[in-house]
Structure prediction request, 52 residues.
Amino acid sequence: MAVFYELREGGGQTLIRRTLQAEAGDVVHETHQCSIVEARAIWAALLSGQAR
Prediction:
């Protein structure tokens, strides 16, 4: 099973999407839409292993 993360920005709103690829099909989870500043802080924590 593979896991992918995406930082998605547009129209002044941003979210982070996590996709779990499995044989039974993809499962997608998204954060709530938030400001670019907030999402980039979460993204940095995710990349550095500090996010849960």
